[in-house]
Amino acid sequence: MPAFIFILALFLCNVIGCRKTENGPVYTGRLEIDGICGNYTITSLNGGLDTTQVQANWTDPNTGIAYTNVFGLTNHCDFPDSFQAGDTFSFRIVSRNGSCVQCLAFYPTPAKSLSIQVVP
Question: What CATH number belongs to 22-119?
Answer without folding.
Answer: 2.40.50
